[in-house]
Fold these 4 entries.
Entry 1:
Amino acid sequence: MIKEISKNAIHSLWLPVALVASWWIFSTNSQDPYFPPLRVIWEQFVYLWVFDNVPVHVVPSLINLFSGFFFGVFIGIAGGVVIGTNQGVARFVEPAIDFIRSIPAVATVPIFIMIFGLSYEMRIAAIAFAAIFPTMLAVIQGMHSNNPTLLDTAKVFRLTPFQTLVRVRIPAAGPIIFSGIQVSLQVAFVVTIASELLGSGFGIGAFTLIATDAFLITDAWTGVILMGTLGFLVNVIFNLVERRALRWYLVSKKLS
Amino acid sequence: MLGLMLLWQLGTSFGPLAGGSLPSAIDALSALGALLVLPEIWIAMSQTMYIALAGLFASVLLGIPAGVLIGLSPFAYKSLKPVLDFFKVIPPIVIIPIVIVVFGPTSEMGIFLVVFANFFMLVFQSAYGVRHLDSVLLDTLRCYGMSKWDEIWHARIPGALPFIAVGVRIAVAVSMVVAVVAGLIGGAPSLGQQMLLYQSSGQPNQTFALVIVFGILGLSLARTYSIIQRKVVFWTD
């Protein structure tokens, strides 16, 4: 058992380790201004981000990301439930939703800058707006894909419409809804970075942009690595939350 | 749709948004009409399409064969999966600051970003498709004494096509988005760059008109792709 696990760990870890190691080795004597040695990047990373600049740049980015994300997901779920359970409303708004969804989320940021200026509200609003649609579409799709037998069973048990919605329809659509929320989170992350890259004094994106403009390439590398790592970690945390929330579903799938 | 346009117009003329910097529906649509006769918009549009399509083709040509090969080897698949998982979820926007200093604000930079955005996802989809074939089907082939090559060519690759098709569909949408973002943030010649120009020079109507253009472009790309997909992998659904 333990042997099995360690064998799997070696299988899945040797390549990432080898890649980082070869980057480290091959860049040791790099004179290319664009690709400084990884050792130098790492030293600068520790100097900048452990933890001097974290309150100034990382914390505001994360606060924006999560407040926009939760706000957008909340609207997305509420709107999705209303649209998904009313045929009339659905027919009225679906073309518009389809259209808005086709617009790249980052391209809406200039519109929010026009309305709110380069402010805190602009960022949250742009992030929330982008986060609404993936969740909303998933909820609508989830409501439509509810198993009719399930709904009939709920009727037989004389559940009120509200009980049916909260206890039956939304949980049954859980897996679809969660995949929508995950897309919302990824889009929210992209818009967070975009809103900082398009002009702002603080945030990791802004820091990296200023470093690029000042030709501080090593600093820019640390910003890119930090943003990439955060993007990855946010996804990992989401997957853990999802697995916990959908445990009943994963268990029931294994049994059947 | 029409109802919402009306709502938008009423909201911006009389409602809470009146007097703000959000253009009304009529203003934005007339700006759209005015934009569509400008040659620079059509040049920017063709530049956007060039970045999106060149990047799409490059990532398809590189990613799918790489993915199929990786999927055929259990060792390669197991080793590369964590690397793919890592790069798959990293949005291309985070590498823009570095890519700008290496390539400058050019079309090549945009194409590189599109490839970066699509490549890992396409490799993963193709590798996953090649590996996850029905085991009964594989056993049947072995009973009929099919060679390894026949198995790959007649079973594994066709079996992977639906997964690959899903990957390409995602890639089509992503390519368009990244081509726009490359212009908007990285300054590559495209509609995104045009939009930044309008926004920073205080032309809200034109900025908004471009948003509508993006919506139309995105919708028509998705429609075109779903028509092509239905013809190519007709045996799914």
Entry 2:
Amino acid sequence: MSTYVGTVQRAGSRLAEPTSLGSIGVTIGVIAFVLAIPPIAARSPLWPILLGIVAILFGIASASRGAYRVGFGAIASGVLGTALAVLAMQSSTAHLNQVFTASLIASMLVFATPLTFGALGGMFSERSGVVNIGLEGMMLMGAFWGIWGADKTGSWVWGVLIAMASGGALALVHAFFAIHLRADQIVGGVAVNFLALGITGYFFVQLYHGNNIPTGVSQIPDVKLTSESSHGFFADSFGHLNLMIWIAILFVPLSYIVLFKTPIGLRIRACGEHPRAADTVGINVYAIRYGAVILSGILAAMGGAYLTVGYLNTYNENVTAGRGFIALAAMIFGNWRPFGAFGAALLFGFSTALAFRLPVYSANGAVLFQALPYVLTLIAVAGVIGRTVPPAADGKPYKKQ
Amino acid sequence: MSGPLAPQHGSEPEEIKQAPPSTVASRLEMRQRAGGIIVPVLTALLAFLIGGLLVLATGHNPIQAYWDIIKGAGLNWLAHPTNTDVANTAAYNFSQTLLQTTPLILTGLAVAFAFRCGMFNIGGNGQYLVGLYVANWIGISFVNLAKPTHILLAVAGAALAGAIWAGIAGFLKATTGAHEVITTIMLNWIAYWIGNYIFQQGGPLQGAANKPLDIPISGDVAQSAKLPVFWGDADLQGLHIGFFVAIGALFVFWLILNRTTLGYEVRAVGYNPDAAAYGGIKVRTNYIRAMAISGAFAGLAGGLDMLGYLYHFGTTDVQAASIGFLGIAVALLGRNTALGVGLAAFLFGGLLYGTTHGLQSGTIDPSLAGHLTEMIQGLVVLFVGADVLILAVWNSRRKLKRKQPTPTRATEPEAASS
């Protein structure tokens, strides 16, 4: 809204704006579901249904005032929240307590970490104007070379550094083709993914003869905030998280500061919005884009390294399993912003963590639940695409004059 | 061409040709056409060269390795093609190369068709898999049908499943603008997990005989659903008539694109959706339709593979399937044309079989060579993206020769954002 109405008035009117109404509706819909699960675990369907109706009303109010997308989102949130809450009430408290424990939060953070690294990396690349579909491949490079480095040098520090170098190297290939050769960035990104799959697969056979990585490889340590024996909400959810998880969380505000509060961030964004103008004021567009793409490869590779050196402590072929693409979706979902991307990564991480716990309901259907994060990504990408605004020059090669 | 394009870009036909392409695919297509067959051949050679260097760097003899791969693909059979007895290793290997070429043609067409409509369909693998599942299901059920009916039903079901699977991505692009690259990849993974679900122990398509043995593999399709084999033995993966279906599909692809209204619309949208919309073509409908046709090709590939030689499928097969991904390299190397796709599919079919089962070599380990295929595939796609530049330089030089450089608008092509 461009007109200035005065701070107080604006704050009041912003709440009554259709999009705000819709957002409130979405939140209420989520609360309806949260009520039904532990630790609250309300057993009476009255509250969720009431809240669901309120959410739907907010949604209708919002949609009828023109904010269709968020309005329908609120209606969907109300319906889904109520339905899921009623479903949760049908299942026994014992099952619920098995699924929704405090360690679900820890688990969510575990799965969100590679996505966060990838999404932040993708954000730097795309903010500078280079679409990076190759995140998946860069993450895979980090995953393989990271554990190879940790295995050969005996130190996880070297493992992570080698991973970062490998991801950066692959990103350099993508950058060279996208920036200097002005090749199509989506085709180039897809190629980089195949290349990473081939390289990691080839060297996995060459170096390990297709056998498993030996056990006892140096592992990224956990940060122990509480003693091993203590159990409580805090201890279970944040007590023994891996160092890389904290680094990922730290990187979110750090990326925000770099991108939005420093001259270098301004330059990156200028290259992504209007490279010609950036060039005119003396910014080296090529150098900035190279730097941003390589940084994205390094970050994605850190996510990959966390996956193998920090979490799984082993490697199998194509271990990243599309996480690079989910990270890309998280970045889009987060509207090319660090906190938004982190929020989306948490959502996808939560769905993965949940998928691993749902087998208590159906052992046979367990495998099918694994598709949940991908389905969610599909819905998210479809649902938000109209609202998000990519950098204006994203994906467009720049030619110096 | 009239309307908003005319005043903006002048009336010279050259100018019009230069300015409008606004999609990834159209730019690739337009510039690629200029290079003829030389550029794709160079692209492939360069990819093989770099692959060879890697083989050399890891301590194997690349020339010997490639020679073994060529023999593994049975290409030495072409020296004496009269001996069609599959007891002969070369003849057998060659029949197997053609067997691999069959689905590659179709998954290549799946990528190429969407490309001609301005979309990048990376979901060929998922569409191939759902086609395979449906063909397996129909092939196992409906056992009372007569042979041609059963085959037709299963093949049509497979193509339809692929069409629906890809159609989802087309629908999402048309209605919400969701980029097809991300949606098709997500659909790949969903198809992957569905496969792991249906064939697993206790899964709905696990074979009755396999259940007590705890083997996560489906039952075999009924005899009435198996495609006739015309070269070799059906029990030894003989070449089935699906090969001719794939060749026919190449012709259908060419026919649809170049001789029908539908094809005209698809190409118009692929070339420039805004101009097409201005000309009264329904762009959204074409996105959905083109993706569905694309998916039908890939689904057909899955159906023919299932009924032609696989007969059954298991969770490990789902995890190993990569035919649909190879289709991307096939389509790009084949310049998204029918003839090109056919030739590129043959190349990758040979590479695929020659580096895996056909390879009888002391030079390079087959499991190593298999990854060489992946790398060459990646390099081919990478260089296809880059030869756009080579051709752009070539074109601009030609243009310079013809007339003095005029201050044209900066040709910063609009690319699809992710």
Entry 3:
Amino acid sequence: MTRLPPSRYSFGGDEHLFVEISEEMSLPAFFKAMALTQELSKRNLPGITEICPANAAYLVRFDPDVMQPDTLVDALKDIENSVGDADMELDTRIIEVPVLYNDPWTNETQMRFRERHQDPSSTDLEYAARANHYAEVNEFIAAHSDSPWFVSMVGFVAGLPFLFQMVERDRQIEVPKYLRPRTDTPKLTVGHGGCFSCVYSVRGAGGYQMFGVTPAPIFDPEQRLAYLKELMVFFRPGDIVKWRPITREEYDRDIEAVEAGTFDLRIRPVRFSLKRFLADPTRYNAGLIEHLCGEGAQA
Amino acid sequence: MSIEVIKPGLATSIQDAGRPGYYHLGIPQSGALDQYALRLANLLVGNDEGAAVVECTLLAPELKFLANAIIAVTGAELDVRIAGTVVERNVSHEVLAGQTVSFGFMRSGARAYLAVAGGIDVPVVLGSRSTYALGAFGGYHGRKLQAGDVLPVGTASASAAAGRAAPTELVAKTPKDVELRVLPGLYFHRLEPVSAKTFFEDTWSVAPEADRIGYRYRGGTALKFKQRQQPFGAGSDPSNIVDAGYPYGSIQVPGGSEPIILHRDAVSGGGYAMVGTVISADMDRIAQMQPNHKARFLSVDMNEALAARAVYRNRLQRLRIALTP
């Protein structure tokens, strides 16, 4: 697998240690962050209060009265040395998330903030399609939804997932953010900025291009749906997401189910192997999707 | 026992010691921004020091007590009135059923804390009663207080009594010019050398955009980040990084113009380079800064940060000893 240089360690005040695995985003960097933070959790070191993996870095919060700062650095370097070059595998889940692309609500919101956009005469989808050399919006939607994505970070605000597509870099969708952020984004908008997609867990400000909405609640303090009973936040770093384009009729049906409290998501447990993925991403992804949708063997 | 909100004030919310443990899911610790004032208020009324209190910001509320209670107000300097009579801050008082507690303007400081014996008894969510407004949960229905809200109060401890006073030397004061000690790091190396200097030399003042999420400062020389070929996945501006976790107290400088210090309702991560972190011992000071309040950033190393932390903890320990019957 791709070998990464040693991580950079830097203290964030007297209570945080920030570990930058790589300056640039890549699946191996994300995977290393996941592997290191999982191992760190397992070791159950005293004085560690938060472990937050995020894209190509991770953040640890600690109590320096219990764990000396330098001792913590030594412990994390030890983990990096012991885990860093293993064949990284991840026990996780793959989740199908329905998306109504090109929906009326994000389209209406786009129109209100057109002067903040690079190309006021196009929609966000048209702009993104062109920026990624797709002739038609439909081809772009297919590229966005055909291959699965890793949840590479959960945060910014409660329960908001950042997602990184599991494809070769030359196929990675890249779109600049709005020139100036909007002051409004509909709840559950599927957006994209830079190389990351996201789902806005709450209504609010945002700078990502807006592609559609999902009917599936992903953050609910009331925890009304089955998949939110355990925790009010649905997504976890390491989840694999497959978008499924849906029609307006399906969307309306899903919303009715959400309101009735009967809506559910297709979720399957899966073991992901980075080595096998990197050997043949297209074939590996096909296996993942088969595992998600059918009775097929584990990817 | 309960308290009715007559006037809500500007941004009044229920806060306690906080909600650690969920930052990896984007849920910040929340809790009283001035943790020392929180603990002082609770100790004065015989509560556990982390009990839920009313956090008042800039313009404090007016509250009607529906039963007798023991209260104490700490934090910002302002007049506290019980049924129209001014009473001392940092001392516990009895409020009788039907009486109103009201406040004057904040002469110094930005946050006052009203503790009630028994604590504000809103539901515990993920281990805390603190309000997290962005997530719309915790505290009183997940939001700041509104007129007409009725706050439930828990059962007072046997030690709750009027007339308990904090030793003057253990009450924090907010100076006119605040010094915030900063451990440089994270992406400090991305600054041009001249900016690494002016950041600590200039005087900064609190911008109007200062709240529980973060405090924005302005007035200093705009900071320049070194030009580079931006890494894949980072934004196009040299102040951008691949989105990463933000420490509490970390200082980001979007576009290089105005530093923002994240506080207890922090956004948990994002794509702006952080140039350092305010040390834990100085986070309460930020909570007491009003808009236009002046600050200097002082560069410290880890040993100095830990020494300041020990001083803070030692003072808190003396407070506990002084106020525990």
Entry 4:
Amino acid sequence: MKAISPKTDSPAPAKSFDVVRIREDFPILKQKIHGKPLVYFDNGATSQKPQAVIDALARYYSAENSNIHRGVHSLSERATADYEAARGKVRGFINAPSDKEIVFVRGTTEAINLVAQSYARSFLKAGDEIVVSAMEHHSNIVPWQMVCAQVGARLRVIPINHDGEIVMEEYERLLNERTKLIAVTHVSNALGTIVPVKEIIALAHKHDVPVLLDGAQAVPHLKVDVRDLDCDFYAFSGHKMFGPTGIGVLYGRSELLEKMPPYQGGGDMISLVTFEKTHYNVLPYKFEAGTPNIAGVIGLGAAIDYMQALDWNQVATHENELLSYATEALAEIHPLKIIGTAREKAGVLSFVFDHVHAHDVGTVLDQEGVAVRAGHHCAMPVMQRFGVPATTRASFAFYNTVKEVDVLVQAIRRVLKVFG
Amino acid sequence: MADLDDLYQEVILDHNKSPRNFRAMAAANRKAEGYNPLCGDHVTVYLHLDKGLIKDISFEGSGCAISKASASMMTAELKGKSESYARELFDNVHKMLTGDITAAEGAGKVGKLAILSGVCKFPARVKCASLAWHTVNAALAGDDRPASTE
């Protein structure tokens, strides 16, 4: 397994990652489940929140709550300043060229729907093709199917191999003059595969095809630099990167966002409205109709501050250790089978038993205090590809420990005791 | 506190390991499919109905131990019974799974199926246990649309 790219370029300090101290920042981790310490391995579904994020939400509602971009009073000015400051933090976090390319949305799903309904619906026509991979989350499949039905375009799928890696030759073969958009995940939620997105983007750009990346599972683990990736759209959610639910980001290249029509109409997205004609607001407000999730944006800003205060060389080393330790420990359990064995992985360990369904595994693990996801992970085509109805998924964050992996292993042994 | 042994009782584990009437049925005159969209569990229930009687019943599909055992016990219980009995049993099993009637009250109304009563302490698993029952209900109603636990 290759090292996760660190978040910063600073040299690795000698001191190791102090996970015990880090855990103090996350109040939820202190509780017991069924009398046992909580082992939270469902970070792929949503991550836990540090006190700093919880405090930022409370502070906004206790001291600043007001509407933005429209008040002349002090509270509104403060809220607007904090809201826009958070946009700047997001821009810095993904190294986007400009604040106006950062659009706040509800989450990754809404970001992808925005691109599907505004970009693809406006600029694609019958016979055009949209390319996705075989390991997409439903949120990076269904919006494209919907727009394909609307404009008569066709959805093409890049196959994956048995390790859960994109088959690059097949991808190259799919590209042709009808290809008008590529939408792939950066890190697979069901398998943990880190997709070679730079290579995918470079090939697409040779054909002048824009690329959207679903970054929901990448941002909590990898350094994301949209300029280095050279992607055209990047979508991610706050709640999977230690921020609040209900807030997400669409990064879009300004040339593309400029020519796209608004996704929703309403307040804040206009500059002038008459019954004859409405003039739309400038970027990014053109895409932010209505009162946004102001608290969520401020909370996301606090999550970014929290993440950027960590040493990401240490975080990367710690997360790699966790994943390889867990992979080795689970591989020793007979007859457990790991699904998703890509050379480059981040944060996810999916596994199955022939004779025990993932739901039963999940229920037994919960009794031991271990929280995992059991099911199809909103990636039913991935399950079909591997011929399994569901998997059990342990997904890690930097606050997890090797000791917790040992608890998982013991809990899996209990599963085998119950089911033989 | 919910106890794992209440959920995974010996009888349930046995039905999971060796499900009864686990086959497709060529002679079926009613058939319905059921999905649990949350987890992707899938079941097909086959019925051979004759003059209001369930002459034969079987099922196929994939799911967890709870859904498989529930389906297996259901087929064992309903074979040879009347359609009206099946509908009444569906109502009572459903009430027992959702905790609307207690295990003790249920015991009188659902017979052997009272063994499934432990499920109501595991809210996340109620839909697993009820999937086959929703599906047989759809098959009895002659409803071609896939049954869902939602």
